[in-house]
Amino acid sequence: xxxxxxxxxxxxxxxxxxxxxxxxxxxxxxxxxxxxxxxxxxxxxxxxxxxxxxxxxxxxxxxxxxxxxxxxxxxxxxxxxxxxxxxxxxxxxxxxxxxxxxxxxxxxxxxxxxxxxxxxxxxxxxxxx
Amino acid sequence: xxxxxxxxxxxxxxxxxxxxxxxxxxxxxxxxxxxxxxxxxxxxxxxxxxxxxxxxxxxxxxxxxxxxxxxxxxxxxxxxxxxxxxxxxxxxxxxxxxxxxxxxxxxxxxxxxxxxxxxxxxxxxxxxxxxxxxxxxxxxxxxxxxxxxxxxxxxxxxxxxxxxxxxxxxxxxxxxxxxxxxxxxxxxxxxxxxxxxxxxxxxxxxxxxxxxxxxxxxxxxxxxxxxxxxxxxx
Lengths: 129, 234
Description:
The complex is a heterodimer of chains A (129) and B (234).
Chain A: H1 8-16, H2 22-34, H3 36-53, H4 64-112, H5 115-122
Chain B: H1 11-21, H2 27-54, H3 58-80, H4 83-100, H5 110-131, H6 134-137, H7 142-146, H8 155-158, H9 162-180, H10 184-195, H11 200-207, H12 211-228, H13 230-233
Helix pairs in contact in B: 2-3, 3-4, 3-5, 4-5, 5-11, 10-12
């Protein structure tokens, strides 16, 4: 780690969290001795951390697992329902596609059966005088 | 009269001699070793539970939830500042775990995988709620701070007497309020490190930050919270 003068934030955080090795602690304490501003900031941060550290460890409600279990079961049941729905509607979906295809084919055949239409399409455009 | 060493000397004396013979150990080092042992025990327990889950043991998931529900709820509660929202989110996190457990390869620690899911879910929910002005309309859940029963012990328990307890509760609510007003990235680091006490190594694994970035961001987060709590620092 570079000197405390250059990276004061990193050093201070590591010092507060006891993450410096003994040699680094010595270096940082020497820096603190020369910097009243850093000392004051460190003191304020210590007080703040003491307050935050005293925050209650919130505990989950007693029936947390039971509620979770119900939610998972509900979700599983819903996904099962939706798979059943997909299976049930699948033949109808296939039938709909077949009907649409049949209508399209019949329509095309009806168009082909009209000779006038074909001739009109086949005839070259008349030359302009 | 002389005694044959190690044969007639009382046990306490032998222990004292043994202590004197050992080089003095750094207490911080001892603490780190204990924490490491604790982590190893936790990993072993998690691996066993995961193995049972993969073999279809439904009770294993229940055990896993009961082991981690307080920590995950604690994280979501401090991140969201609202008990109802926190409970809903914690359940969503465990539902994701339930769904994704089959694809979990078990390369790293289960604990950090779970926390990664939890932090991502929290961030996404905060982003979603921000668009709906959730934090403007819903204040920090003060009831939850004051009406916990004996499930939790915080600042209020440090101060004796009923009046002082109310002061403690108010202080705790104020801290929670200021914490919830922080930028979500800053809030997350404060919650992981200063509220839940995770190590730098664990936070790095969870957030994917570099160590230097983590330290400087944590410093900025602490400064921001310190400024907000200035009135209470006295």
